[in-house]
Each structure stands twice: as C-alpha cells, then as structure tokens.
Design goal:
The model is unreliable at about 1-10 and about 240-245 (pLDDT under 50). Helix 8 packs across helix 11 (about 205-220). By secondary structure, the chain is mostly helical. It is built from twelve helices and no strands. About 30% of the residues are buried.
Length: about 250
Amino acid sequence: MSSNAISFDLNNINLSLIKEEYLNLKEDEMKPIELNSSFVSFQETRTNMINWLTFLCKTLNFNDQTLFRCVSIFDQYISKILDNQKEMEEMTQGKLNLIAISCLSLSTNLEEVNCNYIEFLNEKVLNTPKEKIFTNTDLTNMELKILKTLKFNTIYSTPLDFIEVYAKIFSQFLGDKNDQIISNIRNISINLIKSNINNICYLTNSPSHFSYLCFVQSLNEIKMLNSLGMKQIKKAIFNLGHQLVF
C-alpha cells in the first residue's frame, strides 16, 4: 500500500480509550534496570538464562506474553538479590535454573490457560537422569521467595502490551480494511523485541520506550510511510503522554 494513499488527520482520531489503556499500562510498567557493576558482571549469565527460557517457552508452545512476563520477573528479582553477598555466594547453576523455572511458573499462572508442564520440567529440565535435584516443593518455595522479594508484584506491563497500543493507534490511520498490514507490523515489532531481549537497551529502557523503538523500526522496514506519515504517527504516540524525544 502506498504511503500517499493513507489519510493522516489527527483531528479525526479519538484516542481517549487508547490513551486510558496506555496510562493504565504505564502504572504497571517495570522500571528500567540499573546497570551497576554487579548487574554488568551478571550480563553474560543473564543472556544464557534468557536464551534457555526462550527455548523452553518455544518447546512448550507458550505464547509470547508468557516469555516477556517471565523475563520481567526474572530481571526484577535478580536485580534485587545481586548485591546480597550471601545470596550470591550460594548461587549455583542449579539454583539459578530453579529461579528461572520459578519465574516461568509464575508467568504461566498469569498467561497460560491449559498449562501442565511440571512433569516435563521434572523429567527434562530440573533433574538429571541419575539424581533428582529439585522437587515440586523446592519449586513452590522458590516461587514464594520470589513473590516476597518482589512484594507480590509480578504483573508488569510488557513490551508486547505497548506494541498492541501502538498498533491500535496505527490502525486508526489505516482504517478497518488493513488488518493484514497491522498484523504484519505487529509481528515484525514483536520479533524485533524478541531478537533484542538480550540487548542492553532492553534493560535500560522502559518497556513502553523500547517497544516504541521497535514499532517505529518495523514501520521503517516495510517502507510504507513517507516522512510526513511517520512524523504524525510519532505525534499520535507522543500525545498519549509518551515522554520521548523524537
């Protein structure tokens, strides 16, 4: 579709409901991670764990939101215990695996409707063929520890939530007859987020900001907007209260 065929008239767009949704998401938004020396030294370990969690989510056919919520919980928990010397001295690879799986379990409770993966984890993830390392009780206890550390706040707004808001804004410009275009842009944006989930930018930007960057990049990739159109899309997002420098 040619960019010249798109009508951009911000005055005819009712953003009130979208803005309300956006502001609600902002209230539950995860704060950017402070990259102190402890977290920087942990970065390589985080990358390995996130890659592993991504693999598990794909293997278990979980939806993207499950992965994003899991990563949010994992990052927030790790950021709070990294400076605890005793906690980190006791950190083994096995315990780190248990933390990651517990974060995934908490996320699935929020996102997955029919989720029965404990047997899979017991057989193929948490335990070796020769020796049982963790029990379901260990998993439950770690979940509770994570919840207490995070003060039972695990429902963070994820980049995927904000992509949906930005897609709704863009659909206002395109109209109802361009669902396929919106779907393509949404998929490109989500893939950009997933491919950069181990990037420092993912940690140092808020989910709303990072998802905005990926969404605009997806628009650039499909090359369907002229410079005026892109400027107006950015203006519409800015009107939501998104404090970015364009």
